[in-house]
Amino acid sequence: MLDATWSTAEQRTAAHRVAEGADADLIALHCRVPDEISAARLSTRAPGASDADLDIAAAMAAREPPWPEAVTVDTSGPLESAVSRALAAVRPWGTGQAPVFRRPYMEPD
Hints:
Layout: H1 9-21, E1 29-32, H2 35-44, H3 54-63, E2 71-74, H4 79-90
């Protein structure tokens, strides 16, 4: 998984190359939330490993290039809604069916 700091076109291309080299599918999910909700969440977040604050979030948003190939996931509502949208992109066949592999599948030695 790559986080928001992998936001340039060059970094996205590099991630695609790594996935192709590993014969893996790469599903791009772009989580979006309105600025006011993001600000409220950042202001109430407990201290942790991330140093992101309102200024960092605004700077990242300002320099982020368009990402038309990513599936947009609205994270402003209930968690279940965002998870459902993400899973629909990652598991297009649904959760109740066997996966359909899009790349050749090989058993480990």
